[in-house]
Design brief:
378 residues, alpha/beta, Beta-Lactamase, Rossmann fold, 2 domains, 7-stranded mixed beta sheet, 12 helices, 13 strands, globular
Length: 378
């Protein structure tokens, strides 16, 4: 599906670009967006090379090259995106980020998107993040999570306090899961005060107060969390726990009667708990605050014809922090020992076990499981 032609001065439809009126570049940007939306892409990459720009789409978590642009055309497209996002086109020596709005014929509406630009040895590299609502499920049921994981999230939503950690590598569906959980919570408990601290805000959530924080600005997670606790929240969402200061405030909030949801980059429930302890959070506080840990990954879904993949399906495991797990945390047991205690639960389903269920249903295959999970053990 290479609608973008080889490195000549041509747009996506094959029409010459060099020497055409300025409207040709806006038309090229519009065509690029339409193609990305039609393909179900989450991101568009414009990567400068020595002889032009490579155009790639991230589809189902993987980057695929859809074609290339001549150097002058690629530079013009990146400049157009910078203008649309209100970035400084004369500053080509610094990274810049912004937001833009563009009409997309494929969905017949204006889309709000994020753009990030950074200088490289061959020119400005631009990455455009398409709106999450184009390809993300919005409800817990639509997530297609394994039943134990779904029931764990529903139990947390019905609780009155505690912390839920959602862990996994980048691109494993953490934010999508949390957004669906927040929408479920608002529907089940109308009038609940929900505040989300995000870097950046991925999509608009009606009924949720969303605050955009910056890891390198004055309003970081820790400062925003301290302030928002004085504004009578009942449910707090943290885009990510990155440091000990933020983790400590989050734990205190969960222990003081708030429901708190946060993401963390960790391989599984036991490693997430180990990370909190490594941040010098007291073991009794971790044990008392944690309600559960959801660990998730995404597998590509096989086409019914079996000749490729289209879309993705989640695999997840939910670790409910019960009395046995709390005792192990307080005793500072190792991550492997803690995992064995979690696995002892009668209904515990591992990520690998969930993946095998999808494989048996014909929705994924061994190659995809190994690509995502490596050599999984049940």
């Amino acid at each position: 599906m290479k609608s973008v032609v080889p490195k000549q001065d041509r747009d996506l439809s094959g029409r010459p670009v060099s020497g055409l009126p300025g409207a040709s570049v806006p038309a090229l940007v519009e065509a690029l967006l339409d193609q990305a939306v039609d393909r179900g892409a989450s991101d568009i990459h414009l990567d400068p090379q020595a002889d032009g720009y490579e155009v790639r789409f991230r589809v189902d978590g993987l980057l695929e090259t859809v074609g290339s642009l001549a150097p002058a055309t690629g530079r013009a497209v990146v400049t157009r995106l910078m203008v649309m996002a209100g970035l400084l086109t004369y500053r080509l020596d610094i990274p810049q980020e912004g937001r833009l709005a563009a009409r997309c014929a494929s969905v017949e509406r204006v889309l709000a998107m994020r753009v990030s630009v950074i200088p490289t040895t061959h020119g400005q590299r631009a990455v455009l993040r398409l709106p999450a609502e184009l390809h993300q499920p919005r409800t817990l049921k639509d997530l297609d999570l394994p039943r134990p994981a779904l029931e764990g999230l529903e139990a947390f939503a019905a609780a009155d306090a505690g912390m839920l950690l959602v862990v996994g590598p980048a691109g494993s569906g953490k934010t999508t899961t949390i957004y669906a959980l927040l929408e479920h919570l608002l529907q089940a408990q109308p009038g609940t005060s929900v505040v989300a601290l995000e870097d950046p805000v991925e999509r608009d959530l009606p009924g949720v107060t969303q605050v955009e924080v910056s890891a390198h600005g004055e309003l970081d997670y820790a400062r925003a969390l301290r302030s928002i606790l004085r504004q009578d929240p009942q449910v707090l969402m943290l885009g990510e726990i990155r440091d000990a200061r933020t983790a400590s405030i989050a734990i205190e909030a969960a222990l003081s009667g708030h429901r708190l949801i946060a993401t963390m980059h960790a391989g599984g429930p036991e490693t997430a708990i180990a990370r909190l302890l490594e941040m010098q959070i007291a073991a009794y506080q971790v044990a008392g605050a944690l309600h559960g840990v959801l660990s998730a990954r995404l597998l590509r879904r096989r086409n019914p014809s079996g000749d490729g993949y289209r879309g993705r399906i989640p695999v997840a495991e939910f670790a409910r922090i019960d009395d046995a797990a709390r005792a192990a945390i307080i005793e500072h047991q190792s991550a492997p020992a803690l995992r064995q205690i979690l696995l002892a639960g009668s209904s515990y389903l591992t990520i690998a076990g969930a993946a095998r269920q999808w494989q048996e249903a014909g929705l994924t295959d061994e190659a995809e499981i190994r690509r995502v999970l490596g050599e999984p053990s049940l």
